[in-house]
Amino acid sequence: MTNAEIAAVFEEIADLLEFKGENAFRIRAYRNAARTVEGMVESLAGVRADATRKLTDFDGIGSDLATKIETLLDGSPLKMLEDLRKAVPASAFEVMRVPGLGPKKARILVEQLGIDSLDALEAACQEGRVRELKGFGAKTEAAILENVGFAKNPENQRLLWYDADLLVQRLLDHLRGCSAVTRVEGAGSWRRGKQTVGDLDIVVDSDNVAAVMDHFASFAEVQSVMLRGDTKMSVRLTGDVQVDLRVVRAASFGAALQYFTGSKEHNVLIRGRARDRGLSVNEYGVFPIAEGEKAAAAARDRTPEHGGTEEEVYAAVGLPWIPPELREGREEIAWAEEGRLPTLITVDDLRGDLHMHTHATDGEDSLADMAAAAIARGLDYIAITDHGQRVSMANGLNRTRLLKQWEEIDRFNESLCEQARSEGRRSPRLTVLKGIEVDMLEKGGLDLPDEVLQQGDWVVASLHYGQSQPREKITARIIEAIENPHVQVIGHPTGRLINRRPSYDVDMEAVIEAAAHTGTFLEINANPMRLDLDDVHAAAARRAGVKIVISTDAHSTRGLDLMRCGVMQARRAGLAAADVANTHTLTALRKLMHAKGR
Fold it and tell me: Three-state DSSP class for 462?
């Protein structure tokens, strides 16, 4: 099992224990374990295989949890989980998918109203029966009714791109171990970097289809073979993930990769351009338009004029190669025609990470730990942005604790300068900015006063509470923060959690306009459950001239490796390095910051 799958098991156990009203400490242990496992970059299977390491080396993983992890890695079921699933009604799982409905409220709904499906829950809300329950009320009922549609939407049950990426990389490594494979690439929505992924697509170049398919079927996580044909094979993996494999000849590999990468909208545009040139484009290559069904059906048996590479396919329709992340049928064709395709940002372009937390609030590691991890990743600067005092559940910092932390950062920077001097270098390996993630208060304003914020280097303003307020109120709160002269960036601007919670109701056009007017940055939060801004809003910000900041919002040193998820989102928005503030040197970044409001 993957880390993500193991984390999901522990999260499910915690939910089921809470539904049953079990001990709170036991529930918290499983939730903490899920968070630890989910945030790990290295695989638990790899840790287990290393004789010099133990699973219990990780915080929150004791001997009991380590044993359960080993059971899952062996592919065996957990008796505890099986027993819990039998003890909890199946309808509870559906109800708990509704944003805002945790296990405790789900239990009340199931036991007191007999809710056995999302449709039944929707009906109960419409009939006014939910508001009559103790602890609910009319506002809660209205919120549940609004969020039932989110839970029922199959789009909100797909794999996060990050989890899909881990799985695709293992599939590609497995297929590269087959001697019959010449080339292999992932395709579909994973290759385009969509924030969630349904089925996975793999394209292989080989002259020995049978050998490739036999090897594919031996992948450890294959649960069943759904289809095996002449060129296509579909399997079902652990976790109910479908993978479609296509095996093609070398002359068709590029055409197949382009075709199965999509998107549908992009491919329609490409086929239209081909028809205008008397050509037909399909997964087998580029051909003169065939006359009659017989000729079209035989396309896969003919040698295409073009199709060995994607570049050949695009050149045949008069275009340069278009990066997969842009292939959504938006601006990419016009850009390609006019020679304006952007050089998309890469992880290597980033010089700093400007949103992260330490154990001073809800992070796992110290300032020194986060700095060392940043240096190891080649960053020039970071901002420590622990929570402000409003986020009490995260032990947010009040004025006294924040100023004390900033004094610690000053001393730490001086130690880095001293180290540089002792090593004969003109500048330190890293500069740590004195930052804070302040909260936008429900009534307006920020949770720390301007006289404190002006003493820092970097202020992220975020909205964590009052997310159900009316659109006008939420928009006004964000714009007020944008107009504050001490706020540099708005963190995760729409508040969504992919598959878990929809965005709050906010006028993003007004937010982007205000950011453009004041010179305030907007964040792409790289956490794979957030990726907020989404690609559409990030593209709108780019068009308005708003600088984007890509940050990890890391709560541990491992979290710094999530930057690639934010970069993928930025690429889908068509962002180049110049569009992103933290690709600049620290000196240049400071100039951008000081230009705010001028």
Answer: strand
Q: How far apart are CA 497 and CA 494, in angstroms?
A: 9
Per DSSP, 197 falls in state E
Specify which residues 225 forms β-bridges with: 235
Read off the pLDDT of residues 136-161 as tens digits, 9 standing for 90 and up.
999 899 889 888 888 888 877 889 99
| Residue among 581, 515, 164 at smallest CA distance from 345 | 581
Rounded mean pLDDT, 246-251 = 95
Residue 453 CA to residue 473 CA, distance in Å, equals 24
Handedness of CA 590, 592, 596, 598 (dihedral sign): positive
- What span, in angstroms and rounded, lies between the C-alpha atoms of 489 and 354? 9
- The tokens for 134 are 């103790």
Q: Which domains does the chain have, with CATH numbers?
A: 3-156 (1.10.150.20), 159-337 (3.30.460.10), 347-594 (3.20.20.140)
**Backbone φ and ψ of 555, nearest 5°:** -110, 10
- Sequence-distant (≥ 6) Cβ neighbours of residue 36 within 8 angstroms: 58, 59, 60, 61
The more confidently predicted of residues 533 and 49 is: 533
Distance CA 340, CA 333 (A): 10
| Alpha carbon separation from 192 to 26, 169, 554 (Å, rounded) | 40, 15, 24
What's 289's DSSP letter? P
Question: Which residue type, as a one-letter code, is found at position 72?
Answer: L
Residue with tokens 């240096």: 375
Q: Which of 30-34, 116-120, 245-249 has the highest mean pLDDT?
A: 245-249
Question: How far is residue 596's CA from residue 514's CA, in Å, rounded to a whole number?
Answer: 12
User: Is 44:6 a contact under the CB 8 Å cutoff?
Assistant: yes
- Low-confidence winner among 66-75, 250-259, 535-544 (lowest mean pLDDT): 66-75
The position carrying tokens 């509870």 is: 92
Closest to 187 in 3D by CA, of 232, 243, 268: 243
- Quick check: bond before 263 cis, omega within 30? yes
Q: Which residues pair with 241 in a beta bridge?
A: 237
Residue partners of 181: CB distance under 8 A and separation at least 6: 175, 204, 205, 206, 212, 215
In angstroms, the CA 228 to CA 226 distance is: 7
CA 435 vs. chain centroid, Å, equals 24
Tell me how far apart the alpha carbons of residues 231 and 222 are, in angstroms, rounded to a whole number: 18
- How far is it, in rounded angstroms, from Cα 353 to Cα 414? 20
- pLDDT of res. 229: 93
Instruction: List pLDDT tens digits, range 81-130.
Output: 999 999 888 888 888 888 888 898 999 999 999 998 899 999 999 999 99
| Reported pTM | 0.84
pLDDT at 298: 58
C-alpha separations of 425 from 412, 419, 428, 429 in Å: 17, 9, 7, 9
Q: How many residues does the chain have?
A: 598
Whether the CB-CB separation of 543 and 356 falls below 8 Å is answered with no
Residue 292 confidence class, pLDDT cut points 50, 70, 90: very low
The average confidence (pLDDT) of the chain is: 92
Rounded to whole angstroms, the Cα distance separating 358 from 553 reads: 11
Q: How far apart are CA 271 and CA 278, in angstroms?
A: 10
Omega of the bond prior to 117 within 30 degrees of 0, cis?
no
What Rg, from alpha-carbon coordinates, does the chain have? 26
Q: What percent of the chain has pLDDT over 90?
A: 73
Q: Is the pLDDT of residue 293 over 60?
A: no
